[in-house]
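General statements about sequence and structure are easier to judge against a single worked case. For one protein, we set the task of working out the structure tokens from the amino acid sequence alone. The sequence in question and its structure tokens are set out directly beneath this paragraph.
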Amino acid sequence: MTSLRAILCVVKKAQIALTGFALTAVLFGLWRVDVIPGVWDLQHWGEDVAGLARAEREAHREARLAGFEAEAAGLVAELAADPELAPIALFGSSTIERFPAAELLPGTRFLNRGIGDEPAGLLAERLEISLPPEAWPRCAGFVLYLGSVDVRRLGAGPDAVAERAARILRLLERHAPGKPTALLGLLPERGLGAERRAVIEATNASLAELAAAPEWSHVTFVPTDRAPLRGPGGELSADHSVDRLHLNELGYQVLAQWIRLEGGPLAALL
């Protein structure tokens, strides 16, 4: 009996060790890809976390801009070869950069010019160079998602976001006058408190009011802070998202359907 108990004890210890090893491996993997909230900071403990995050944002932005420039010659050739080609350009932060529009809205040529974690001010600065000069007059319309970074990372209020959105609309008007534009509202997020909830709702109200102004008759506000992307508790639906802020495939299917059905004049192009 003693020998049997000893064997069982060894087996149990081995099981515990294996479980611990497996759990450690899983947590390490999540740590490396920054799935667990806050572990990015632990990964860079003792370093200038804010500086590292800023450097990563800047590097990503530069890489995206370089990609747009690299695509320019091919896009100009494509437009020259097909005089009837009229693409739709998408501008915004990570929600736009990740948007598989061509897959979900087939039959339309999309130009994805989204840059993750980019506030509206930086979008305005680089808007003109995001497309070659030959492409601007050929664009059939635009999709905009802006203000999310301004609210969530920079703490901007509803009026400030609306002013920045108006600036970008004026820039679009300068390059491609009167083209149909879908202005997407801010998405909800997971784990938001009452204060953030109120700011998102107020910002969306300001954006809707902006799009309804007579000056922007070609702009349609498409609300996104609603079911099914917004869950019963007012947060971003876990079934429609990959993390606290970003949509998954199902979430993008919903977003694409809203643009196609509720995008105003732009919807007629899809």
Remarks:
- The chain is about 50% helix and 10% strand.
- The CA atoms of residues 31 and 43 lie 7 Å apart.
